[in-house]
């Protein structure tokens, strides 16, 4: 098998050095961890992040939420649907531009978010403690530099 177009050494190199692979693996592991603890509040980690992104003084536009979460609008809209069906948010016309849509947390959505926040704080604190404050902040800084 020596005439393989991609040598096994290249596979090992990618496995050991690829930032995308390492970030994806870490993201999946973190998401599983948060999914597990947030289940008691009836949310996944993605739903928690999405609802938290709506918790603003003024209801955000779909575009601003998509940008914040680094999602395309189609994916965001698909993720909004179950939360909207559950009555956690509404999608309403922008009063200043009827073509635009605003995402509004309902009272039920705010209550769900309020129930989930202490769970997130505890889980996030445990992760920060395991990493150490300096390492955790360095990781956040490095990830933010990629945006």
From TrEMBL:
User: What Pfam family is a match, any one?
Assistant: MarR
Q: Which residues form the HTH marR-type domain?
A: 16-147
Which InterPro entries does UniProt cross-reference here?
A: HTH_MarR-typ, MarR/SlyA-like, WH-like_DNA-bd_sf, WH_DNA-bd_sf
* Entry protein name: MarR family winged helix-turn-helix transcriptional regulator
**Organism for this UniProt entry:** Mesorhizobium liriopis
């Amino acid at each position: 098998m020596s005439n393989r177009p991609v040598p096994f050494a290249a596979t090992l190199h990618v496995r050991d050095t690829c930032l995308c692979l390492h970030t994806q693996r870490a993201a999946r592991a973190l998401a599983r961890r948060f999914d597990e603890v947030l289940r008691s509040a009836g949310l996944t980690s993605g739903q928690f992040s999405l609802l938290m992104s709506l918790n603003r003084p003024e209801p955000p536009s779909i575009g601003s939420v998509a940008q914040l979460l680094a999602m395309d609008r189609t994916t965001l809209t698909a993720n909004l649907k179950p939360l909207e069906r559950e009555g956690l948010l509404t999608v309403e016309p922008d009063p200043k531009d009827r073509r635009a849509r605003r995402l509004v947390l309902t009272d039920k959505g705010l209550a769900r978010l309020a129930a989930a926040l202490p769970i997130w704080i505890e889980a996030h604190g445990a992760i920060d403690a395991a990493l150490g404050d300096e390492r955790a902040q360095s990781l956040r800084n490095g990830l933010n530099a990629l945006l």
